[in-house]
Structure formats: C-alpha cells, structure tokens
Amino acid sequence: MKGVEKLDLRAMPKIELHAHLSGSISRRCLHEIWVKKQTLGETILQDPLLEMPEGKFDFDLVTFFPLFSRYIYNLCNDRDSIVYCTNAVLQDFQDDGVVYLELRTTPRAIPSADLTTEAYVQLILSCIANFPSQKMTTKLILSVDRRNSAAEAMQVVDLAIKFHGHGIVAVDLCGDPTKGDVSTFRDAFMKAKRHSLGITLHFAEAPQSSTDAELRTLLSYEPDRIGHVINVPDDIKEIIVARKLGLELCISCNVHAKMITGSYGDHHFGYWRGVGCPLVLCTDDVGIFGSSLSNEYSLISEHFGLNRGELCALAKDGIQAIFGGDDEKARLAKVMWI
User: Fold this and answer.
1) Which of 22, 58, 132, 141 could disulfide-link 170, Cβ–Cβ 3.0 to 4.6 Å?
2) Is 205 an active-site residue?
3) Which helix H or strand E contains 66, and what residues bound it?
4) Cβ atoms 51, 25 nearer than 8 A
C-alpha cells in the first residue's frame, strides 16, 4: 500500500459500470422507506434492518436473489419509493467520488402503482435527468433477466432502442445464473447490436453458467463488456483477450457471495490485470455487500500491492470501456487523476 496513505480514495474520481439499481439501495434508505410505509399502514414487511442486519454481507447465490423478489421489490413498489431510492443511490455514488455512472435495472411493471414497464423506465430516466450534479454523469442500462422469455427480452431491447440517446446506452443480461437458457435471447441481443446499443453480459458467474456452450453463445452476441468472468476456461480467456473486451470486476461481491475460492487476495483480478483488456472495478450491489467503490480500490491496493499511480491508472482505464460516447470520454480524460 506504499503511497496509498497519501491518496484520498473517496475523493479520487472513479468510474462505476456495473451497479444494479435495486441492489445499490442502502439499508438506511430502505429503512426510511419502510418507516414511512409502516406509519401509513402500507406494508406488512419487517424492518429491512432485521431482514438485512447491519454487518451481514454473506449473501450467497441461494439467499441473494430472493432478497429482491421477496423483499426489496415489494418495499419499493410505487412511484414515491422508486424516486426516493433512485435519488438516494445517485447521491451515494456521487458522494463516493464517482464521476461517471452506468446504472442498470430490469424493467418491471407494477400494476398496483399503475406503472407499465415503459413507465418504470421513464421514471428512472426522469430521476437521472433531474438529479442535481455538476460532477457525475449517469447513464442507464436495461437488463434482461435470465428467467425472461424471448418475448420479454425483446420488450426490454425495444425499450432500450426507444430511449437510446435519451439516457439509455446499453442492454445487459443478468439474474440467477442457475436459471434459464441464454440461447433464448439471441434475437433480442442481435437486434440490440443492429441498433448500436452497447452490450454487457454477466459472464461465467457460477459453474452452472460456465459451460462451453453457454459461454460461446454469449460471446456470439458480440458483447462490448462482460461482468464477473470467474469460471473461464483457458480457450475462452484467449477469445476475451483477443477481442479486448471490457471486464467488470466486483471484488467484494465475489468474496462475500462465495463465488470464488479463497478471499480478496485470491481474486481473479490478479489474472486479468495486464492482459490488455480494459479493467473496471465495480460494486455490483453495494447495498447488499456493503463495499463502496472507494473501498474496492482500497482492497485492491491492500491485497495486490497497487501504489498511488497504479490505482489512478486503473481508475482511468475504465474510460475506454464506457458506453457514454466520445464527448464523455474526453471529459473523463480531463477529470481523472494521474
């Protein structure tokens, strides 16, 4: 950590490219929403501080996904709560020194709130557009869930196309890696590619989603970036390196969820560093795993020995992987530390 004690990691300008909106809501924010709803008699859910106690971050792939379907989606289920939590997430990232953010969300209809999937997307875009910031640019990525049907995936892509140029920059494939057949989404992602949307995919997250057939199918969608990249065979690594795909690495998430064997120092950051692919540290779900982007840089410095210059270079490396366009890349080139 030589020299890092002189570097304020929170103040250091950073780029965040893999952050799920619902997973980035702090427990404090969820608690505030819960208190208001309980006071008004609008929820029977228990306090999120009991559901997700402070200091508990060891949610694995079995316990993680039900947190959303069973709890968070049922608490943040109307316009007011969605606006409140979205603004809180944006503020948290800005306060942590993020100067460019690509937030991602799976469009969801909420009939009880008279929200269609399109109205939900428009609501998030409105929050982003109205968020007061002179420092942080925010773009939106729409996610296809692995449990979606082909028609549902196409609906997500069509929404992304409709609002491309109005805040949306890309589409993503996410969700429980033990579910679904990714070949279902071929037409949807091919359409996204034809319409010049960025493509980022959760890739080789778990052994079940790391078969040769799945990984080659995902690569056939011509992604610009891939996330996690944990269980990757050598021949697939060669393709990734040859294509110079952007790599979204989420250190704390992978450790806490036991997606890797060992701890921080065993993370595959050590392998991917220096292979020539743009490398971006990301939080994934900071509300669940409790590690800010600043802390991710601190962990990398501590466990991989990066000094001040190397940390600044790593942060700046993310510029080439953003979906925000050449003007934004030029802005970031001036903002990032050297």
Assistant:
1) 141
2) yes
3) helix 61-66
4) no
- Measured between alpha carbons, how far is 309 from 13 in angstroms, rounded to an integer? 13
Q: Which residue has the tokens 């970036």?
A: 225
With a cut of 50, say whether residue 3 has pLDDT above it: no
Quick one: 119 exposed, middle or buried, by C-beta within 10 A (0-12, 13-18, 19+)?
A: middle
Candidates 172, 295, 281, 149; CA nearest to 226 is 172
Catalytic residue among 51, 102, 205, 214: 205
Q: Which amino acid is at 302?
A: E
Q: 279 with 273: CB under 8 angstroms?
A: yes
Edge to edge, the sheet with strand 279-281 lists 14-20, 98-105, 137-145, 168-174, 198-203, 225-228, 246-249, 279-281
In sequence order, what are the beta bridge partners of 110? 115
Question: How far apart are alpha carbons 316 and 223 in whole angstroms?
Answer: 21
Which residue reads 């002189």 in tokens? Answer: 6
N- to C-terminal Cα separation, the chain = 17
Are 267 and 254 within 8 A, CB to CB?
yes
Q: Percent of the chain, pLDDT > 90?
A: 96
51 within 8 A of 110, measured Cβ to Cβ:
no
Question: What pTM value is reported for the model?
Answer: 0.97
Asked if 215 contacts 248 with a C-beta cutoff of 8 angstroms, the reply is no
Contact call for residues 145 and 175 (beta carbons, < 8 A): yes
pLDDT at 1 over 60: no
